[in-house]
Input
Amino acid sequence: MSEPPVISTRGLTRYFGKRCAVQDLTLDVPRGCVFAFLGRNGSGKSTTIRMLLGLLRPDRGTASVLGCDSRQLTPELRARIGYLTEEHQLYGWMTVRQAGEFQAAFYPRWDEKFFRGVIGHFGLKPEARVKELSRGMRAGLCLALTLAPDPELLILDDPALGLDPVARRSLVESMIYLTRRADRTIFFSSHDLADVERVADHLAVLDYSILRACCPLETFRNSVQEVKLGFAGPPPPLPPIPGLLQAFRTEREVRIACVHYNAATERALQALTPLTLERVPLGLEASLIRYMGERGEKTLILSNTEVSS
Amino acid sequence: MKQLILKELREQYKVALIGMVVLAASLIFTLVNYGNCLRETMQQQTFFDNFHPLLNHDLLLRVAIFCAIFGTLLGWLQIRAEHQPGLWAFLVHRPMKRTRILQGKVMAGLLLYDRPAKPLQVTSASKCWPSSPRSL
Output
């Protein structure tokens, strides 16, 4: 029998006034995975996370975390969930040591040695005041405060937001090396797709408040494909192609991005009798941009200095 | 709970200190102002029958208004300190019921509110002591 999901939502919906922030979100997060929650700014990622933690009430639908309704999380369950907020906000007057002591008082499983290890890793002095720390250091401190209680589920809301590339890399690497454990689930939202590609094994994509994809990372990467067709002259008009995301035409070439690329798609393309048909390998970032970008056909004919869509 | 109360006390102690100084100054001002009258009435042995500067209507009114404003300001500052969404989430998402968090805040607020009233309590006690039979 398969294990129940750590996070499960059914038709989760939230409005802010008339604006729908999250619409009918249904997803399951399996235990032990690193789950990336992706989407543009304002697509509803943080709102979803707040609903999962019971910090915000959904207007419709349900969410359960560690098997409990998110609106009724008990203190015992909260102790098993680590949450890193988007802005890495802490009390500025506290020193690093005081922040640790403050947090430790609430968590029965607080691991002081681990906390010291993580702050040491980020080069934080225990007597340094939080308000004097750089953003990267503050993020490191937040990470230490989130991890030291030894949570079973980690929810990280864009942990690398606002960090420079070095701090971001350091944070993400620490996050993975320090947190990866077979029984620990990490659910994190991010905009940095290179990081997601390196660390995540599942992803969900929110676009304009609607869930557009929820699957293992490999499945997503294999689903979105780009093909380059070369022609002797101007490319012919395209027939209806199943799963077409974008088509980009130039004088002698058409680049086509499709979702669920399969034999039927290939047959439809071969019917155009191209000189060459070449698969272009796409990284996660390129796949996601194709998947979430504006759909349809675009033409760029440089000889006429004309750009149309 | 203790950590929560300590946090609140550490965050707002400056406000409580300011309140204490303002109220103490107001009391000193009143006592000095009424000093001469006080001496006269004490010489006439009619101190508690005729006159008590701390029971003066104006002073009581001023203290009442000050305490109301100070209490409101303190409560507002306690709320405002957690106003940023990230900080609020950091406070709320911990193994503690929200009612306990509120309780901690209220207790800290009462302790802080009690600070400015200290000069008033001390002065009142020192003035009331002579009137009690046990002082004889």
Summary: The mean pLDDT of chain B is 76.
